[in-house]
Amino acid sequence: MTGSVLDRSDAIRNRRGADRLLLRVTRNSGPWAPALMVTALIVTVAQLCLPALLGRALDDALSGRFAGPWTAGCAAVVLLLVTGEALSELATGHSAARATAWLRHRLLDHLLALGPRTGSRFPGGDLVSRVVTGAADAAGAVSAATWLVLSLVPTVGGVVALWLIDPWLAVTFLLALPPLLLCLRAFTRDVSEVITGYQRTQGALATALVDALTGIRTIAAAGTADREAVRVLDRLPELNRLGHGMWRAQTRMAAQTALLIPLLEVAVLGVAGFALAGGRISLGQMVAAAQYTALAAGLGMTTVQLGRLARARAGGRRAAEVLAEPGMSYGTGRLPEGPGRLELRDVAVSRRGVRVLDGIDLVVPGGTSVAVVGGSGAGKSLLAAVAGRLADPDRGTVLLDGVPLPRLSRPELRSAVGHAFERPALFGATMAGAIGYGAREPSPERIAWAAGRARLDHFVQHLPEGYGTPLADVPMSGGEAQRIGLARAFAHAGRLLVLDDATSSLDTVTERQVTLALTEALGDRTRILVAHRASTAAAADQVVWLDGGRIRNRGTHRELWHDPEYRRLFRPVRGDWPAPGDRLAPDDRTASK
What we know:
About 60% of the residues lie in helices and about 10% in strands. The chain is α/β, with parallel strands linked by helices. The chain has a six-stranded mixed sheet with strand order 6-7-8-3-9-10, with helices on both faces. A hairpin with a 2-residue loop joins β4 (about 395-400) and β5.
């Protein structure tokens, strides 16, 4: 019972958040939203004026009076209708484009601000669906809401006009109207549920497709393309069912209105016929009454706009769910002069309800290096992320030269901390741009220096245009991509360098050369190294051994080597390890992951 109440309250909050977002979308559609409202209002008023003008023109023509002014008025209203509809279509397109662009930028900025936490809640394909399709659907709220409100004006205006012609006509219409309103209510409920399910299923299908494309080499190597195609398309029957559900709801509504509206019109016209026979209304008024009845009962436009608004609210709800995720906040502080002393105080982090890091207390003196080692799932990468504030701890504080990281402004933090990863994502138009990506105005000399430290310069020299070679034209192995990521981190002028298993794809000789560069050329920086190789741990000033999210031990590699459990971290095969300093085979230097 309590769970259902909480679910309902969450659903209400989500709907309210979506509605608030749609209001902001409307405000950010620029001057085209007011232009749409004005032109749509002109069209609606013209629709209401035309039957009255036609009735007066008909009465004058039948009585032998000059009907020229009323006929001219009809022509002017028709011209106004055509012009207004053309301008409203233009305003609809421009307002939707502006609103879509604003919402997509808002979503993208927020997603990038969330950082690595983005994928913990929303799969990649689902996010693409929300940003591309969902944002466009939500932007349709501007025109849908405008036309929905104005589609009710002919109904109200038609009833008022019928009352002015003969009150019994308006009474007859109102008595026959409730069944139509019940149909609209049922249609709105049904189509809203179906559209929400359709958009979620689209997101799940997109997620499966992105996953398959990401692992395309594995699929090809395993020869499981047919199986993966079945998995990706597994959602199609559900999508088909929901799509047919939308069509069924629309068809049912069309059939109901096709039955009810003629009956309503017949009822009103029957009363109008008696009024005409009794001399209470003229023939022109009866013609006007027929047109006003059609206008008042013409809820087809209302049905269409209700469907569009339901789609917009569903898209807005999915966008609001993303925007509701709390982003990483930054302060305005700056770092004092300092060597890059890093301190973690009682740091704890949980992921999906599981405590991954717990009670981490660590001090890294400025200009020294710390290798973080441990078995699979020990929390090494998460500790590196927390140290460079790619993630915030649930408890505890991380300080750089005495300043808590959340107090720093984003530019100050990102200029102080450089990162390199096991599988770096490379950005930039050219090789030089990829190396200098994120650095503050790196000079060509700085880029060349960083490439040299990462042992990338020889590779670049053999490219057709050297550092100016377009990145898309650079053929590279996993090790070369990793070296570009290292060079990018080296080009960074910060005081703290975080390498998350960033040398795992390098051959033994290159790995030793990079380690030497970290010790000598980059020795003035504080370095956090997630290590899976004994050689990397041996070169560090200090080793922190994580086990189950806690620090099991710390010291130099030589000191910790006496522990058989520690040695086992770097032993992928059975057999005892030699003592430090003995010759090691390259394959034996890699820790188990």
